[in-house]
Design the sequence.
C-alpha cells in the first residue's frame, strides 16, 4: 500500500497536510506467521507493534495511494455484501482513502490484512456501526480473497492484525468464531526484541502443491503451538517455508541468527522478511544481530519492534 519511511513502530502515525473531510478513522497493526495456513490447513499469526492507520475521505487524498491489487475497492464490496450501508447513502465511487503504515509491504508481514481491518474500522466509524472483531475478520478475509492477495483468505492474519496475541485458526470452520481452535496472549513484549530483516519484495508466491512435501515441519510447528511454545513454532514454520520457497540464503541467515544468540528465527508468510527474536535481558545480543544483518550491503534493512500481547475482551 503506502510506502512510508519506517520510523520507530511505537510512534503514533500522522497524516499531515490532509484538509479533506474525514468520514471515518480505523487502526490495526502488522503480524508475523507462526503457522502458514497452506501447510496443514490450520493457520496462526501473532500481532506485532507495526501500526497502520486508515482514513475514509470524501475527496482524493493529497498523498499517493499504492493499491495495485485494488484491495480497498474489495473492502467496500465486502462491506456492502455483508449488508452494511455506505456513509450518507453514497455509491462506492464517492469515497477515497488515505493510508499510513509502518508495515514493510509485500514481505509477509500482513500489510494487506492490516489495511483491510483498518479500512473496515474506518467504515464502521463513518457509519456508527458496532461490529465484533469476528465480523471485521470475516469481511477482511473476503476482501483479500476477492483482491487475489491471499491463498487461504488469511483469517489468522486478520485476527492477528485486529487484536493482540495469537489464535490458531481452522479456515474451513462453519463460522469465524468456530474457527478459533486455540488462543494465547503470546510472549510478553518486555521480554523479547523482534527484529524484522527486510530483504525487499517477495519474488514469487508459492502454489498450494509446493507445501505438500514439507508437512512434517509444519506439523512440528502445530505441535509447538498446542504446547504453548510460540517461538519454537515460529522457527519450525520458518524452516518449512524456506524449503517451500527454495530460499537457501534465508535458511543460512536464520541459522546464523540462531548461532549468534537468537531464540527463534524464520521467514514469515510467503516471504521475504525474516523474523528474529532475541531476549531483552541481553541487549548486546540484539545489537550484534542487527549489525550482522545490516552489514550485508545488499539493501537489507532491519526494523526492531516487539510483540503485542494480551487477549482482546469481546
Sequence:
Amino acid at each position: 500500500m503506502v510506502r512510508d519511511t519506517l520510523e520507530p513502530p511505537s510512534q503514533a502515525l500522522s497524516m499531515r497536510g490532509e484538509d479533506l473531510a474525514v468520514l471515518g478513522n480505523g487502526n490495526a497493526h502488522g503480524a508475523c506467521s507462526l503457522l502458514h495456513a497452506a501447510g496443514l490447513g490450520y493457520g496462526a499469526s501473532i500481532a506485532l507493534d507495526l501500526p497502520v492507520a486508515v482514513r475514509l475521505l470524501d475527496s482524493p487524498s493529497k498523498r499517493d495511494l499504492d493499491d495495485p491489487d485494488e484491495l480497498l475497492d474489495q473492502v467496500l464490496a465486502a462491506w456492502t455484501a455483508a449488508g452494511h450501508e455506505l456513509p450518507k447513502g453514497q455509491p462506492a465511487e464517492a469515497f477515497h482513502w488515505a493510508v499510513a503504515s509502518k508495515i514493510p509491504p509485500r514481505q509477509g508481514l500482513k500489510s494487506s490484512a492490516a489495511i483491510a481491518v483498518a479500512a473496515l474500522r474506518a467504515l464502521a466509524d463513518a457509519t456508527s456501526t458496532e461490529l465484533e472483531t469476528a465480523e471485521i475478520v470475516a469481511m477482511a478475509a473476503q476482501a483479500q480473497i476477492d483482491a487475489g492477495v491471499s491463498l487461504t483468505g488469511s483469517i489468522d492474519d486478520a485476527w492477528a492484525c485486529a487484536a493482540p496475541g495469537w489464535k490458531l485458526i481452522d479456515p474451513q470452520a462453519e463460522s469465524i468464531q468456530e474457527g478459533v481452535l486455540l488462543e494465547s496472549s503470546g510472549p510478553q513484549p518486555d521480554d523479547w526484541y523482534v527484529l524484522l530483516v527486510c530483504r525487499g519484495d517477495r519474488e514469487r508466491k508459492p502454489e498450494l502443491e509446493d507445501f505438500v512435501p514439507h508437512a512434517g515441519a509444519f506439523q512440528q510447528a502445530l505441535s509447538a503451538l498446542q504446547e504453548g511454545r510460540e517461538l519454537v513454532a515460529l522457527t519450525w514454520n520458518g524452516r518449512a517455508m524456506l524449503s517451500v520457497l527454495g530460499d537457501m540464503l534465508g535458511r543460512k541467515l536464520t541459522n546464523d541468527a540462531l548461532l549468534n544468540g537468537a531464540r527463534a528465527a524464520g521467514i514469515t508468510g510467503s516471504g521475504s522478511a525474516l523474523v528474529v527474536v532475541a531476549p531483552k535481558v541481553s541487549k548486546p545480543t540484539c545489537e550484534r544481530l542487527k549489525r550482522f544483518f545490516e552489514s550485508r550491503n545488499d539493501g537489507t534493512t532491519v526494523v526492531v519492534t516487539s510483540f503485542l500481547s494480551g487477549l482482546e475482551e469481546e
